[in-house]
Amino acid sequence: MLERLETIEAEGTAAVNGAGSAAELENLRVKFLGRKAELTGILRGIADLEPAERGPVGGAANKVRKGLEALVESRIESLAGAELEASLASDRIDVTLPGSPVRAVGHLHPITRTRRLIEDVMIGLGYQVMEGPEVEHDFYNFTALNHPADHPARMLQDTFYIESGAGAPEEAGPRDVLLRTHTSPMQVRAMETTPPPLFMIVPGKTYRRDSDATHSPMFHQVEGLAVAEGITLADLKGTLLAMLREIFGPDREIRMRPHFFPFTEPSVEFDVSCFKCRGSGKVEGEDRCNLCKGIGWIELGGAGMVDPNVFGFVREAGYDPDLVTGFAFGFGIERIAMLRHGVGDLRLFFDNDVRLLEQFS
Ligand code: PHE
After folding, report:
1. How far is the CA of 180 from the centre of ligand 1 (A)?
2. C-alpha 138 to ligand 1 mean position (Å)
3. What is the tens place of the pLDDT at every residue in 63-95?
4. I need a surface site. Which of 34, 101, 184, 278 has the fewest CB within 10 A?
5. Reported pTM
């Protein structure tokens, strides 16, 4: 019997050591240690043995069982570890690789990028960025900006009016609410809520009844307003120069031409020197510079010193026309983007043909 146990131990040890997988080991465990295994039978039969044999056989059988059990356990552990390693190695994926097929990455619209560029420049000059309603009251769009009652911009053919619907005040006529024709109404709104000194810009959508290669019924403007004690036209010129040099290059110059706006006095239009012909109007191989049409200057927007009458509407908010002065300017974002990217037709920005938009990634 003891010899038989030695054989079982030797066979079992060899088999377990030779097993190549966790499944194979499980089968060997059943074979050598399971309920029907020979060893189990021997252990069960100990009570039937001669009393003198019980001790040595029982001790040896238990030793063989414990030994095999421990061996199986340790082999399972090392095999499971090795199997895990192997499956990890074969299943390995590089999660940093792009998906397949590679997805096109989107990017910001050129108008958004131009707007953000302007914002960055003006924030750098200490201005805050404000936003205002696109659906505006006649009061902010025209009246508080000193537009006379018969100003052409107030005519139905120039401006989109909103019919006042339910809930509108009784006295509100059909023309009291409109789509803002410029970002200038925010001059008044900003001054109503923020005491001087005030340095702010307003980027946003504006609306006019125009539609051609350089005009769209919806377009974008940036308004600028600076109000404090002692602000002069020279500050306006320096600010525009600093801003336009950031946008169009450090060699640019600006000029201001007399103009008229109801809400600024004096009023100007401002131009930047052409960055294609460097202000000369001439380009090799062309009759004249086709960007500035040979003029050397590119028209950008309107500006001026805030009219004291406008301050009169916000006097209560701290804007005493005898104490503070200020300048305001406004220009179109599309125009800047067209010039920077050489886009000839403003409407292309809103057709949203990806073949065009992809060129600005
Ligand atoms: N709001 C004017 C326009 O749209 C531009 C402007 C802004 C002029 C501020 C003067 C001062 O034409």
Report:
1. 12
2. 16
3. 989 988 888 888 888 888 888 888 888 888 888
4. 101
5. 0.71
